[in-house]
């Protein structure tokens, strides 16, 4: 489980294909603190550390993960938002993030907000999935590339988020432009409420 508060962005050093899987090699400042079998969120996707060599570590993404996320488009040199699993003895600064990406969205607009920026993202709307809680609500939470954010101006198939300069500089939001594909995870609380209504 994660909070959506990104620690930093890691840099992809290599991509290796193994049948339907890919092994992603990365480097970041806390590699020496990682251990095999540890969970780390990568652009919001929970992946397991399978190898550590020097200042690099390796995680594996399987076919379903690649189909639901943007990890299959990564290449050497790309920046990936990373967060280690949440410690349960501290404050929850973001929101409850599972690391189970629901689908991808595409950036359709970036608007300057006199210091901050508004990013608009559009995603494929499915009425049945929306009935099960896969949607955004005004002032609710959403995770974009692993970043816990507050929704504004949602529609059936789009939403905006406001990005302050610190978040822009310390996550891969600085690489997002119109047309960029991102990973989104809808709020788990909304999914549970929708499910309770469905069975109630």
Give a structural overview.
With 200 residues, this protein is mainly beta. The chain is 14% helix and 40% strand. It contains 4 helices and 12 strands, in the order E-E-E-E-E-H-E-E-E-H-E-E-E-H-E-H. The strands form 2 sheets. Strands 1-2-5-4-3-6 form a 6-stranded antiparallel β-barrel. A 6-stranded antiparallel β-sheet has the order 10-9-12-7-8-11. A hairpin with a 2-residue loop joins strand 3 and strand 4 (45-53). The model has no long low-confidence stretch (mean pLDDT 94).
Q: What are the SSEs and their pairings?
A:
Layout: E1 8-18, E2 21-27, E3 39-42, E4 45-53, E5 56-61, H1 63-68, E6 79-84, E7 103-113, E8 116-122, H2 127-131, E9 141-144, E10 147-150, E11 158-163, H3 165-170, E12 181-186, H4 188-199
Antiparallel strand pairs: 1-2, 1-6, 2-5, 3-4, 3-6, 4-5, 7-8, 7-12, 8-11, 9-10, 9-12
Keywords:
single chain; 200 residues; mainly beta; six-stranded antiparallel barrel; six-stranded antiparallel beta sheet; globular
Percent of residues in β-strands:
35-45%
Q: How are the strands ordered across the major sheet?
A: 1-2-5-4-3-6
* Topology pattern, helix = H, strand = E: EEEEEHEEEHEEEHEH
Spatial shape: globular
Structural class category: mainly beta
Q: In total, how many beta strands? A: 12
What percentage of residues falls in helices of 4 or more residues?
10-25%
Largest sheet features: 6 strands, antiparallel, barrel
């Amino acid at each position: 489980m994660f909070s959506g508060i990104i620690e930093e962005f890691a840099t992809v050093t290599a991509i290796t294909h193994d049948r339907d899987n890919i092994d992603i090699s990365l480097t970041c400042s806390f590699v020496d603190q990682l251990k095999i079998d540890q969970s780390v969120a990568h652009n919001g996707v929970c992946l397991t550390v399978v190898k550590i060599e020097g200042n690099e570590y390796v995680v594996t993404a399987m076919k379903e993960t690649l189909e639901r996320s943007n990890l299959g488009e990564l290449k050497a040199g790309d920046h990936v938002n990373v967060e280690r699993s949440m410690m349960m003895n501290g404050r929850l600064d973001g929101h409850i993030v599972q690391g189970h990406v629901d689908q991808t969205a595409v950036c359709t607009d970036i608007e300057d907000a006199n210091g901050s920026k508004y990013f608009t993202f559009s995603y494929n709307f499915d009425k049945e999935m929306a009935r099960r809680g896969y949607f955004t609500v005004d002032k609710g939470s959403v995770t974009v590339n692993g970043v816990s954010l507050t929704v504004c101006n949602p529609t059936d198939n789009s939403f905006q988020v406001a990005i302050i300069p610190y978040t822009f500089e310390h996550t891969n939001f600085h690489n997002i432009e119109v047309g960029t594909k991102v990973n989104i995870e809808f709020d788990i609380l909304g999914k549970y409420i929708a499910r309770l209504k469905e069975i109630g």
